[in-house]
Description:
5 helices
Amino acid sequence: MTFHHLMLFLHVLAVTAWVGGMAFAWGCLRPAVGVLAPAQRLALWVAVLGRFFLLVWIAIALLLLSGSAMLMEVGFARAPAAWHAMTFTGLVMIAVFLSIWFGPWRSLRQAVHVEDWARGAIAMNRIRQRVAFNLALGVVTIAAATLGLAF
Ligand code: HEM
């Protein structure tokens, strides 16, 4: 096992947790909790997303550390175009996550705390749209990484 293999292992582990978690939240949990009343549904989302977002922070730290370690082995200038594409879309994904964390995620927690379900539903809707966007971008990034695609 080389250093590169270890970095690749941590990188793919982080990708699995982040993109897999979004696929589960968006594709499985979201349609299933539609039957619950807003009070229960939004409180459940706060409990679920609070745990998931902690995992995403860890995944981001691992992705950045392992990704830049692998990039530095060859140097940014000599890295294949697909790696540049992955770095770009990966950084956009991180920016979108930050926009959720500092925006609607904060509003959702406050709304649930004061039992303002209408405001909570608006915040949750924004989170859902941005997670769908990041899920799609995650798939594009995996395609760039594995199929060698660059735009
Ligand atoms: C944000 C900064 C990122 C950097 C600097 C980065 C950099 C790298 C590098 C240098 C490799 C090694 C490629 C190889 O050995 O062939 C790699 C592999 C990979 N990356 Fe990233 N990456 C980043 C983010 C992401 C994200 C967000 C995803 C997916 C959502 C992703 C998915 C992958 C996958 C699936 C591989 C394995 C490719 C393979 O071995 O064929 N990366 N990354």
